[in-house]
Every structure is written in structure tokens, then in C-alpha cells.
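Help needed: design a sequence for this.
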């Protein structure tokens, strides 16, 4: 896991959008849902390429992880989820089943 000291996830999300990671996802009915296409993905259909952990500047309990993902249909995107006391247990369980694979260095 990459730990970055960047003030906001948005800075990193914007950088990945410029690299083609334009899809956004959320968990729905135990599957990852592409918010634009509404297509659902199981853990075997998703790859995590990187993740970045953030802590709130004014409140250390405000913690999140930004995931850089791709899906088996060729789309690439991001997912931000809370962790710590505010963690989404169902989403955490889903992501724990997803393969982790570093992107090519040209993708960074």
C-alpha cells in the first residue's frame, strides 16, 4: 500500500483521471457497480492497481483509502472508502477478495 501525505484525495483522483481512470464505483448488492454504466462486477472481475491512505487534517478520525481499479471490461477508475471506525465492512470484505496487481510504470 502506498502511503501519501497529500492533503486531499481529490488531488490524487484528478491525477488518475488525467491518466484515464475515469470510472467511479460503489458497492451495491455485494458487487462493485460502475456508476456510469451501472454494470456490476464480482471480485474476480476487478483488479486493484494501487491504494492510498489519507487522514483528515483537522480530525485524525476522518480516514479514507483511495483505490485505483480496473475491471474486466477494460474500464479504469477510482473508489474512495472510509476506514477505521467509519469503515464499510461489506466493501472491505469485497476488496479483500480482489486481486492486487501493480500497473506498468508508464501508468504511474
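Sure. Designed sequence:
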Amino acid at each position: 500500500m502506498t502511503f501519501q501525505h497529500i492533503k486531499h484525495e481529490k488531488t490524487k483522483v484528478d491525477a488518475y483521471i488525467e491518466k484515464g481512470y475515469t470510472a467511479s464505483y460503489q458497492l451495491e448488492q455485494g458487487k462493485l457497480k460502475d456508476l456510469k454504466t451501472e454494470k456490476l462486477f464480482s471480485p474476480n472481475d476487478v483488479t486493484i492497481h494501487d491504494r492510498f491512505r489519507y487522514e483528515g487534517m483537522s480530525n485524525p478520525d476522518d480516514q479514507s483509502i483511495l483505490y485505483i481499479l480496473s475491471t474486466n471490461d477494460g474500464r479504469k477508475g477510482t473508489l474512495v472508502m472510509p476506514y477505521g471506525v467509519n469503515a464499510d465492512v461489506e466493501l472491505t470484505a469485497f476488496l479483500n477478495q480482489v486481486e492486487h496487481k501493480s500497473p506498468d510504470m508508464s501508468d504511474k
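Residues 1-6 have pLDDT under 50 and may be disordered.
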